[in-house]
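FAQ
Q: What does a multi-component entry look like?
A: The components come first, one per line:
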Amino acid sequence: MTSIEQHKGQETAFGVNAKGYYGKFGGAYIPEMLYPNVEELQQNYLQIISQPDFQEEFQDLLKNYVGRPTPLYFANRLSEKYKTNIYLKREDLCHTGAHKVNNTIGQILLAKRLGKHKIVAETGAGQHGVATATVCALMGLECIVYMGEIDIQRQAPNVARMKMLGAEVRPASSGSKTLKDATNEALRHWINNPVDTHYIIGSVVGPHPYPDMVARFQSVISEEIRSQLFEKTGKENPDYVIACVGGGSNAAGAFYHFLDEPDVKLIAAEAGGHGIHSGMSAATTFLGKPGVLHGSKSILMQTEDGQVVEPHSISAGLDYPGIGPLHAHLWDSGRAKFYAITDDESIEAGFELTKLEGIIPAIESAHALSVLKYLNAGANETVVVNLSGRGDKDLATYMKYL
Ligand SMILES: *Cc1c(COP(=O)(O)O)cnc(C)c1O
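Then the predicted structure of the entire assembly, as tokens:
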């Protein structure tokens, strides 16, 4: 049975219902002009992704193109330091250097089956843009990526990658000129090009069915964790799974097969920035309230009169004022515990992993590692940290702290 067939959603407390809700959160809050696009997806996604020929092509690319399964690595020296048993799920070893490609491969295969031959995407740090441009090159599809003007300046190497991969990078020059503005412009582009274009969203955000669809594509992470952990320890379930949450796709993938296993504690690390009370933070569950952003109801950082508050994080991948509706529900129900990790703490954890294990993590992933010091996990317990990406892209930032 594939991961997609195992977890039909409605039957479980943490799956999406037929209307796209996780508890109070989710749904599809979209302008009328987007109805046809979104409805086409809602009506077709489950059927398409459960077809044997889809699964065969998806699994083949995950194996031979992305390099899956990624290792579940027992981090010996890190475990000694924290007096527990720590395993790292090595998503940093995926082709393109992070988990995002799992989703873009799934979505491009879906787009092809829907007869779409153009792709539009938004990107913040450029990681999702690169993952999207990569699969468009792989499949020979036209690719347009919207990116905030400020992000284009901050993330020059990823802009160069996208261009080399054949994508057109379009600057988003409205608002704060960052991720949320790029998302608005990508949505607008999709409204104007409904027939031939598929919009590849990069996280478990957006109108239903995106959060569920992206979670299913990323669920390969926890599917592998289970079987790899069983192989190594004789037990499928760890005591803790820790992942960072920007929009929440790597966390959704790492949590997915453990959602209904109450003995597995789910831990989410948000970007605390300079501290949650500093005015420079992206810790959504600490600072946010229910609201609608980018097509779904969730928790988001907003002013009294509902204006979205500009977030701050040292890691571009976590610099988002909301979280996906699944995570809002996990937070609201108490199923997952959330930590706000500051910029400085994440840098410290990044250097620590590098020194102890010879692995330079993405600063996003370093937020997840930072939780280890708060966990007090026991000597007999097992902790899995999802290492969502590699740190090459962050070297300049790390160097400022050397
Ligand atoms: C984009 C990114 C994230 C944040 O996105 P999620 O959807 O929350 O997973 C985390 N880590 C890395 C390495 C990323 O590139």
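Q: Is there any commentary attached?
A: Sometimes. For this entry: Confidence is low (pLDDT under 50) at residues 1-10.
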